[in-house]
Automatic annotation (TrEMBL):
Lineage: Eukaryota, Fungi, Dikarya, Basidiomycota, Agaricomycotina
Chaperone is among the record's keywords: yes
A Pfam family this chain is assigned to: BAG
Annotated organism of origin: Thanatephorus cucumeris (strain AG1-IA)
Name the UniProt record assigns to this protein: BAG domain-containing protein
Keywords, alphabetical: Chaperone
The Ubiquitin-like domain, residue ranges: 9-57
Biased composition (Pro residues): 100-109
Length: 225
């Protein structure tokens, strides 16, 4: 079923949230190589038509870990002291002090430190795949995007034609989104904290490059440098 033309992007986001169980703002919606950012705009503003494909990127939520709890320390016990004896009659012997010394202060229990879970072979294999994809991004796509960013930063008279710039921007935006989708395809198990950390770093780096590309593209169009 195709939503009506006036259907806002926010409603589409809510519908996807209900179907996936993800928070509405934990993922990005991508269509034709561009991230749809304005939730108040109708879907027709993004060119969505019957048969269009909308990609959902992100939505990685780590379940909270329960804090390490300790059993309460037992209440310190006290030793009752016998009442002081009545004064003895004077004698040639020194009086004996029958009072007992106070008990030592109770010691606090030693809290065991929580050691990180070891990385098993399956998690290690997933980390290797993520790092391999990350290295490929850095050695191939990233240098090309950086070169294009230098072109956008150049004075207007030194840049290619607007049509060529537009095509290159669209090409690199789509390639960066494809890179995000590749990392999104890795789904570490719930206890694979190290794999999640590596995947999160890769997604964050690619997303920052995509944001910079879109930002410089908009700036170049507005300023006309």
């Amino acid at each position: 079923m195709v939503p009506p033309d006036h259907y806002p992007l926010s409603s589409l986001r809510e519908t996807l949230s209900q179907h996936t169980g993800l928070p509405p703002h934990s993922f990005k919606l991508v269509h034709s190589g561009a991230v749809m950012k304005d939730d108040n705009a109708p879907i027709t503003a993004y060119g969505i038509r019957p048969g269009s494909v909308v990609a959902l990127v992100g939505g990685d939520s780590v379940p909270p870990r329960s804090p390490y709890t300790h059993a309460p320390a037992p209440a310190p016990t006290t030793t009752a002291h016998p009442p002081a004896p009545a004064p003895a009659p004077a004698s040639n012997h020194s009086p004996v002090n029958s009072s007992m010394p106070p008990p030592p202060a109770p010691t606090q229990p030693i809290t065991p430190s929580e050691s990180p879970a070891p990385v098993n072979s399956q998690e290690a294999a997933t980390i290797t795949k993520i790092q391999s994809e990350w290295n490929s991004f850095r050695s191939k796509l990233l240098p090309e995007v950086q070169s294009f960013l230098q072109v956008l930063a150049a004075p207007r008279q030194e840049r290619p034609s607007p049509e060529e710039l537009k095509q290159n921007h669209k090409k690199f935006a789509e390639l960066l989104l494809q890179a995000l989708l590749k990392f999104d395809a890795f789904q570490p198990e719930g206890e694979w904290s190290k794999a999640r950390e590596v995947r999160k770093g890769a997604v964050k780096e690619v997303q920052s490059v995509l944001d910079k590309l879109d930002g410089m593209w908009e700036e170049a169009k507005v300023s006309g440098r």
